[in-house]
Amino acid sequence: MLNKTNLARIDLNLLVLFEAVLEEKHVGRAAKRMHVSPSAVSHGLGRLRRLMQDPLFLRQPKGVVPTERARLLATPIADILERARQVMSEAQGFDPATSRRRFVIGAPDGAYAVLLPPLLADIRRSAPGIDLSMLNLVGRFEGALTDLDERRLDVAIIPHKDIPARFVARKLYDEDFVIVRRAGAAAPRRLSLAQYCAVPHVVVSMSGDPTGPVDRELAQRNTSRRVALTVSNFMLALAVAAESDLMAALPRRFALLHASRYKVSIMEPPFQVLSAPLRAVAPEVATRDAGLAWLLAQLEKAAKAVTRFSGAP
Description:
By secondary structure, the chain is α/β, with parallel strands linked by helices. The chain has 3 domains: 4-92, Orthogonal Bundle (Arc Repressor Mutant, subunit A), CATH 1.10.10.10; 102-172 and 278-310, D-Maltodextrin-Binding Protein, domain 2, CATH 3.40.190.10; 177-267, Periplasmic binding protein-like II (D-Maltodextrin-Binding Protein, domain 2, 3-Layer(aba) Sandwich). It has helices at 4-8, 12-24, 27-34, 38-52, 68-92, 109-126, 141-149, 193-198, 213-220, 234-242, 252-258, 290-310; strands at residues 57-60, 63-66, 102-107, 131-136, 155-158, 167-175, 177-182, 201-204, 227-231, 247-251, 264-267, 276-283. It has a 5-stranded mixed β-sheet, sandwiched between helices. α3 crosses α4.
């Protein structure tokens, strides 16, 4: 534990330097990110090492790696810096009408393709200086929590039922999947299990792995399907289903909102597929940021607009 004398000697920039070196894993890149010289970073690391009584970062041929002590310090230092940033943000105030912030949102593309139209319309009207970066989280929902912890994401929109207590979660809507197939093919309102398995499928998989929860469900029912193609996003799966004999399982609201541009039929699956609440998740400590609180409110507003438009419960 640092005593008051040690605290008086600490420059907050040393913690910013620690964060930069930890994330970049390279002194030169950390220096470039902080707009200082590599020698200044090396000097700062020397001061930190003396204060923490640990080497903190060990040189490797391609950069540096953190020591175990540095790994243990990473989370508390990140919390200190986040609180400091929040203090400065609150001191300056957040006005969406004049702010020029960029927010990074992670979500499966089947969700942000649904939420973006009303979200963008509202932002362009009331917060024209706000910019967004959208990252596709298909296949990496667990990693999204790590990205939130490490501030690579501001908000993650994920179909999790149990969110750890260190996060806040706002339910946007309940989601499940429907089956989409090219119009003109036999299209009963609800597929039987035999009909579902008889047609080759296009599956959304970022890794290219053709198996998933649906296949495990089918195995329990002593049957299987043929996955003829994997693609990396839902919009491409929709386009492929519209132009081929392949069948696709797509998020219900995504299908209802976007299938009108394609000649496809929408059918109910023979069993419930991937049903879960879709939530906007952010680190609890980050919600003290007025800008992030505003973004969460905008996402909730967009979700309500989508629910009304789709007619879904």
